[in-house]
Every structure is written in structure tokens, then in C-alpha cells.
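Next up, sample data:
>
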Amino acid sequence: MIKSQKWFVFIIIAIFSLSLKAQQNPNDIIPLDPEIKTGKLENGLTYFIKVNKKPEKRAELMLAVKAGAVLEDDDQNGLAHFCEHMAFNGTKNFPKNELVNYLESIGVKFGGDLNAFTSHDETVYMLQLPTDKNEQFEKGMQVLEDWAHNVSYDNSEIDKERGVILEEWRLRKGAEDRVRKKHEPFIYYKSRYALRDVLGDTNVITKAPYEAFTRFYHDWYRPDLMAVIAVGDFDMKEMEAKIKEHFGKIAARQNPRTKPQYDMPPHSENLVSIASDKELSFPSVRIYFKRPGRPLGTYEDYRQNIIASLFDQMLNSRLEEISRQPKAPFRFAYTNEGTFEGKSRAFMLFAGCKGDAIESSFSTMLTEAFRVVSSGYTDTELERAKKSLMSRIEEAFNEKDKTESRNYAFEYLQHFLENDAAPGVTAEFEFYKKLLPQITLNDVNSMTNVYMRRENNVITISSPDRKDVTAPTKERVSFVWDSISKSLITAYKDDYLNKPLLEKKPAPGKIAKEKIFKDLNVYEWELSNGVKVVLKPTDFKNDEILFTSFSPGGTSLLSDDDYYSCYLASSIFNQSGLGEFSENQFDKYLAGKEVRVNSGISELTESVTGNSTKKDIETMFQMIYMRFTQPRKDNDIFLSYIDKLKAQVKDSKNSPRSTFSDSVKVTVSNHHFREKPLSEEIIGKLDLDKSFKFYKNRFADAGDFTFVFTGSFSTEEIKPLILKYIASLPGTSRKESWKDVGITYPKGKVEKEVKKGIEKQSSVRLVFSGKFDWSRENRYLLNSTMQVLNIKLREILREEKGGTYGVGAYAQPKHFPRDEYSINVMFGCNPDRVDELIKAVLDQMKGMVGAKPEDKYMVKVKEIQKRDREVNLKENHFWIQKLYTSYLWNENPELILKEGELTDKLTGADIQKTAKKYFSFDNYIRLVLYPEK
């Protein structure tokens, strides 16, 4: 049966490939991936099913509803989003909180495996379920069905959830939100989208009658507007039968309410919106070139999307080059073309400006866009862009049987909601191989006539309300636009270096010692220069190679006098190119290569990290070698970096969140000299020559480095590259370690209030700290205790009290420079409820000290850990992190396979004992952000 299915898929793909070679009608719809089972039930519900084994024993399920905020009646503004929340607050088969309680008890994580979102046009529910226990999977399918037609809308639950929604609304409030609301009437000019904020009107949220909720649910949650998407490790026929069983019994709506289609009305003139706010993080300019949409899912649509990707990539590269110049007007800029609201499309330009250069940012960005209009792109730019696109689709093709189910589910979601093509990566790979060579420079350049029209354009300028920031007037914006759009702009000069990255290959070293951990399939090599290399070949991905490394030292070896001259060295030199290649030239060299290698210098270590595909593995090793031996000092990049940092500091001064974050950092570090927030004074101390000298010193001796590699390689394949590029690194065998510079947590109770901002919102941070008994078991127990605490805090602060949208608690046990720990609890809330909610947090923590948690919490935590571990053991990222920490902490890596034993023997008594030990109520920091008035 399996074999015949594979032959069927092969035949369908072959037919699709042949169709590409024929003269295809551009307006024909691209066939759906032949590996997808799709259909429509009699009630109108659509379904998509695909078998996929990544991750194993899991299914990614989605319920998509073509109904969002734009369909709300005037008395329902905000209720589309509210209805999404209510789906988690009780259904016919899962009253009140039983839905979340049950799913957590089978290892489903709230917010990770269980989530939802609402937008203007749709609402989507997401649920990842285990598939190896039929009873659990069946109940999970019942959850999905209940969302579709059995949500309870219990009045008391609606009233409790009003507070949660208000806190989500409060969390989103701030300068960015205030400015966005000023711009939206221009962006969504005279359209329904300008009238409907997804979070809605607080008067409606707090006062809407219960009937308004059920009316929205009845009108729009109906099978003809729904799709069920199922991707995962299951039998396709059984999955189809379950969908028909659960969703086929939902009655089609009799005389359904007509669903309106809202469009974006045209406007002939440019619309300009200028808004300022004293708390805005940074100034910005955004330009929308709006236009009517085109038929989606066709061959021509697919071709146009490829051209759009090429166009965006080339213009983004030009904007990035400008941002690296010493006096660049913007800190960053980018462009994007795609679907917009109301089935329209938009070509968009965005710049994050420096405070004194808003008009200059606007004119520079506009000039680059119209430079393409005047003289187009170059052949070399197009060649690089094609290489990059081809490389990405090739990587996706290589991973087609190792792609996560969630990625496929989102692809089919877009197909249902937007009619995007979903032919499958095999067909897409063939499509790219056929189309990319045919796309000419003229094809791409001619898109300026489509993108940059003279009508339906909107310019928005967001400006901090400060004396040193001047935004242009609307008249000035119009003048600049007219001047640039009518000018003949000189052609772009493509500066690239056509030579090998590493011209002289190093002489290879040798392996001095070898150790093999057979149960782990891990190899440990000690090289002739002293470097230790740890290798774990895997088959978790077909084309993914990851690595990390560490060496003791870091910025702790800097004197206090030199600290601020050099502490940002790795950030500077990661942006400065390599060897003879400037950063711009280096980016161009890497076109078509899927590879990344960066160096880092933290407080206690220096490192080199990165990743690549198999075809680019030698480039990755060359870059590793050059990060050590050929760092590049570039004064222009340094000046540009300094300029951006200064702009960042100026812009962040009036931001309440930034001010609070700085205060947390200073307080938690006990006002240590090295933990001062970035300031213009500190930036002024940065010294390029000293930084370069320090960087070279940290990477002068590779002999005390440990490298960890994991991914799709064999030891025989990777061995010659390690000997050539890592065993050849300089190793002087110097013996050194980090120094303890004395950054400690404050003792006793510390309370600090920060008053900043005009919104009625508070941020709360509680930090508990103390000495830690370092061991593998104690780390596990502390983290498990935090998992219990997180569930309890969500239940009390969010679900019972409706006091916050989200609360998080996490622990940080540290081994270096000394054994200690910190516990952080964070949430946002109404300033009037700060004391009440902090007391609730402390009460829950004290309750855990006084009694062991109920069995239901232990079931949840243990099951979540087991299910996470099932997935993690087949992930490269998990293994590289575990091996890294094992070697960093000098622990036996073989214990990684025994972590499940810790879960098996975990008890409620262990949690209580750990809480008693580390919940230090006499030694914690209370930090609260309040509004100024």
C-alpha cells in the first residue's frame, strides 16, 4: 500500500513537471500538492490532510475561520478577538477551564502547542496533539470540533475574560499604538479596515451584552467559512474519517448572513500622515504604493511572486549598503511587496530614521526606489538575487521529508484564506528551475511601472516629540516627492570583489586523541593545536549543520579602564567584513550560499557560532578560520556603528519600557560599573584600535577552544575540513580563565519604582536570588518548580483575577563565576492592581513552600516534559545546546540520555522542598513601572 502511494505521487509530480514544459495558460490555477488529501463536506467545510513524520507522534491541527474584526457590527467592535478567547473558557464537552486542564495533562503546552490568533479577516485556532494514544487524540479532535460549534459563552466566564482582554489592550498601549491609530485613517483610506481595530473598543469589551457575543459566533462560525487542516504522523484514511465524523455533523447554516467583501477605495492624490509622540522609540518613515490585487494561485501569480522576491532582494541590498555608511540618515531600511488588506496589494518602503534625519531618510529611500525607475538594476545584482532564491528553494526541497508539520499547516492555511498556490516543494523546485532562467532584467525592471504608480500612495511619518527632532511638513514631503519622482537619477554602481574568500589554504593539522561515546553517537577529538572538537552526526535534517564553540576569558579579562573601549568588539567586527572583503562585498560573495558564522565575546567566554548546508560547508569552515585569523578593521563601519548607537540612546530616553529595562539591569546588578545602560558618554569611549587589539587577543590562541558540531554530516566527510581549517588555527597553549569582576545581586529586600509614561499601565518584575547548590539534579528540580509556578500564576492572575494578559516566571541557575541563582516573575497590569497582584504571586509561592502541589500539577509538568523530550531528542538545536553545556560545565555528556529518569522520579515533595530552598522572601527585588501621573 505504501509503495503504491509513492508511485502515485511520483506520477503526479512527473505530470506536473511536464505541464511546466508545455505552454501553460498563465491564468490557470496551479494544482494542489498531490500529497494532500482535500475535500469539502456537505455542510461546506473544507479540509486538508497531509501525512508528515516531523515531529514523530504528533499532529498539527488548525481550525481556520474566514471571519475577523472587519465583520463586526458596531456593537461588536473587539468581539471577534474576544470570541477567540472564549473558545478556551468552556465548551459543551469541556466546561470552563477543563479544556486547558485536560490538554496540559496530556503534555500540550498552553501558548506553544495550544494557541490562536485573530486578524481583520480571519480567526485561526492551533493545536498540536500526540498521536500515539488514540483516546487522547480523539479528545483533542473533540476540542477542535467544539471550537467550531460548541463554545459555551457562559456569562460568568465572559465577565471574567473581560479583564484579560482589557489587560491585553493595556499591554498594547503606548506611543507606537497611539501613532498607529493616527496613521490608519490614511493607510486604510475610507475603508472598513480603518474602522475596526482587532483589539476593539474598551466600552464594547467591558459592556457588550452577552447576546452580541453569541450573535457574532452564530453569524460567522459556520462550516461554509471554515477549514480543518491536519498535518502529522497519522494514517490519512483514519484522519479523514475523524474529520468527517466530527465536523460532518455540524449543520449547514440555514439562510446564512451574507458575508460582505470590503475593498480599499482608490485615491488619486498622495496621502501624507505626520504624527508625533514624546514616548516614541525612534522616528520612522513608511511609504505605501497601493494597487488592486491580482488573481492568486495561478501560474502567472507564482511568476510574479518570484519577480517580486528578486525586486525586493536587490533593493533591500542597496538600502543595507546605505545604512552602513558613516553618515547614513537611517539606522535600517527595507522594502516588501505583497498582499494588503481588502484583496489589494502594496509595495512598501520603511526606514527607521535617526532623530535629526527624518527628511533625509525619506528622500534617500525614495531616491533609491526611483533610481530603479530611472536606470534599473544591473545584471550582476540579478544574478546574485537568482542564486539566493534558487539556494533557498533547493534547501527547502532537500528538507522536504524533514520539514516540521507546522510549516506545512501554515502553507495550507494561506491556501485556504488567500488562495495562495500550494503545489508542494517538489513541484515548486521544478517551477523555479524553469522560471528563474527565463526571468530577464527587463522583467524585473519593468515592475517599477506596476509598483510605483502615481496614485493610491500613502506616506506616514512617525516622529518623537523632542526639541532635537524635526519632522518635515506635508508640503515639504510633497515637494521632495515631486522633485525626486521627476528626476533622472544616476545609475547604481555595483561594488563587488571577484576573487576567492580565502586565497591561501592553511596547512592541515592532526587528530591527537579520540574518544567515542557509542550510546550518544558522539565523537570527541583533541587536535594537534589543543582544540577540542565534539561531533554528533544526525539524520534529523537532510541538510542542516550547526556548530558552536567557547573559550574561557571574555570581557572579564579587560581592566575597568579599558572595559568601555572594547566591550562591544565582537559586535563591531561581525559587521566589518572579513579579510579583503568589506561587509558589502562579503554579502555579495555569500549570495546563493546558506551559511552564517559570527564571533562573540561575552562576560566570561569568547565564541564562534554558525550554521550551513552541505553544499556550503567548506565556506563555513573558511569563515571560521578567518574569524580567528583575518578579522577586518573598517573605520567607515565603525563610524556608522557609533552613529547608530548614539541615535538609539537618544531615541530610547523617552520610552517607558526602555527606561524600566535600564532600571532593572542596574538594580539587579547592584549598580555595578560594567552594567551601566548605554549612554553617549560610554559610546564616546569606544576605541576602534583598542577594540581590534582586544578582539585579536581573544582569538589569537584557539588552543583552549571547544567546538561542537551536529547535523547532517559523517565524521569522514567533516574530518578533512576540521583538520584543514580548525587544527591549523594558532594554538599557543596559553593557560587562562575568566575573572570574577564582582557583579552580584543585592542583598535583602529592595523596592524600586520607576515613574515614566502617560498610559495607565504598569510593568512588574520580581527577582529572587541566592546561593545555589550546583548539580544536575538541582537544576532540574528548580526548573520543574518554575513550571508548576507558571501554571499556578496563569490560573490565578489571568484566569481567576483577570488581572493580566500574561505572566511568566523563569529561573537562571549559574555555575560561573559563582554558584548562584535568580528567579524572575514578570507581568503587566493596571497600576491600581499592582499590590494586589504582587501579593497573589507571593501567596502562590508561599503556598508552594507550605504544601506540595496537587497531583494534577505534577501530571501536567511531567507529561509536558516527557512530550517535549520526545521531540527534542530528534532536534539538532537540542543536542548542540546540551553538548555545549556539558562541556562548558565539565559534566559527563552521557547523562543527557538519562534526563528522562529525573522526570520519572519527580514528586510533589521534591517541588515543595525546592520551593522551600529557593523561594527567598527575605531576599528579593521588587521593581514596578508606574505612569508619571
Remarks:
- The longest strand covers residues 330-339.
